[in-house]
Write a structure and sequence with these properties.
The longest helix is centred in the N-terminal third of the chain and has 17 residues. The protein contains 4 helices and no strands.
């Protein structure tokens, strides 16, 4: 994460943030997983509504109101600055 932050490599950096969110979800760190997802969804990335909705990676977060809110927000396009 420190070697390839989003500021250095937008594509790989976003993938690393997503992967960290998956790891946090798998080990039960829901708060940290949600925090990482919030960060990834604020930037252009491959993470999409369909992936959040269907991929089993996110099963540990399903039912959490914060995840459901992020799921709804992921339907909206990311604003480019």
């Amino acid at each position: 994460m420190e070697l390839l932050p989003v500021t250095k490599d937008a594509v790989t950096g976003a993938e690393l943030l997503r992967d960290l969110a998956i790891i946090y979800a798998w080990v039960g760190e829901k708060d940290l997983a949600i925090k990482q997802l919030e960060e990834v969804l604020r930037i252009p990335s491959e993470l999409s509504y369909g992936q959040l909705r269907l991929y089993p990676y996110w099963d540990p977060l399903r039912g959490d109101p914060r995840f459901e809110k992020l799921l709804e927000e992921s339907k909206k396009p990311v604003a480019m600055k």
